[in-house]
Amino acid sequence: MRTELREMTLExxxxxxxxxxxxxxxxxxxxDSRESIRHFLERNPHLSFxxxxxxxxxxxxxxxxxxxxxxxxxxxxxxxxxxQGIGKSLVGRCMFALTGIGISRxxxxxxxxxxxxxxxxxxxxxxQRVELITMSQPLRQ
Length: 141
Ligand SMILES: CC(C)(COP(=O)(O)OP(=O)(O)OC[C@H]1O[C@@H](n2cnc3c(N)ncnc32)[C@H](O)[C@@H]1OP(=O)(O)O)[C@@H](O)C(=O)NCCC(=O)NCCS
Hints:
This protein has four helices and five strands, in the order E-H-H-E-E-E-H-E-H. It is α+β, with helices and mostly antiparallel strands. Coenzyme A (COA) is lined by residues 23-26, 75-77, 82-88, 110, 114, 116-117, 119-120, 123. Coenzyme A (COA) binds at residues 23-26, 75-77, 82-88, 110, 114, 116-117, 119-120, 123.
């Protein structure tokens, strides 16, 4: 089956959100709302991608940067399409796009109990930073 990798647009949101919802290992929050993704894509143009097969999205990756480091979020491949190199090629496309705008290091968050996700990233050569702890606080609107 022929698949195509292309830039993500906001019109993809509904399909992508459904994919995220069925993807174990991802925990969706308000940050994944349509408005939040619209803001993200506007701030980070040409960095997020989807894989499409016969007009249907089968995989997606959000990618952005803060001016110094890149970040990949919510990588998901439909269960029926896993272990075919689709996740790896999406990640490669994101990293290529980051390199093209002068970003030389990329980070990502994985839920601590997502063992399959962690194994995937390690297989791709990503290093688990055990010396780092992530801290967060909601901001008042
Ligand atoms: C993790 C995920 C994105 C992998 O996508 P995929 O398309 O199946 O991965 P690929 O086929 O591109 O695999 C790339 C490499 O990783 C390996 N790999 C894939 N899934 C793996 C797993 N669960 N455990 C160990 N290795 C794995 C593949 O064997 C392949 O190795 P190779 O390059 O030596 O052949 C997919 O399983 C998924 O959507 N999971 C649910 C959501 C999630 O956990 N996302 C990541 C959290 S941020």
